[in-house]
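Z., the sequence and structure:
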Amino acid sequence: MKLTYFTRNAALHADLPEQDVLLLLKEGNKEAFIQIYNTYHHLLYGYAIKFLKNPQFAEDIIQEVFIKVWELRSNINPSLSFKSYLFTITRNSIFKLIKKIATDEKMRTEMAWHLGNKIVDPDLQLQWQQYSLILNAAIDRLPPQRKKVFKLCRLEGKKYEEVATELNLTRNTVKEHMVLAVRSIREYVGRHADMELMVALSIAVMVKS
């Protein structure tokens, strides 16, 4: 399914109530689909870009959301809030992307680059100060040895083997400290930061293999 084809070729049911449009969508009506697409695209994009800061990532999320809506159209219940339904799918897709970023070095770099290049904005500078305060507080709560390992690996950029030699530990012990440190930090962040903070901080504390 190509969304661009629909947007360029579908006549819209602009005068119909949304429930009627959704009933048509359930039946596979492409014009109804694009009516919904045009109604909610901008709103959902604004929601996604707030967290992801990357226009391409945000647009990819929204395209994925609407493709999913089309594929699952028969399950739509017009009597329930369709707006809430869309935001739930979008939120889940954002979390799914964050998990993917966690395991993809290229995506982490791209996300960090986009965040870092916006740091000149005063509001974002304040957000980054909040990120730092929460992250530092989470690191300070770690046991002494685990904190030392985390700082050497993550903040100084040393490899596990280097840290193991410096601290007279095995590589597996260093890795275990890092896994536990990241888990502790994420739990702390989850209790003290909103979703936007978690996106940025998740990039900073990812465990390298």
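The first helix runs from residue 3 to 9. The chain has two domains: 3-103, 119-204.

Let me know what you think.
H.
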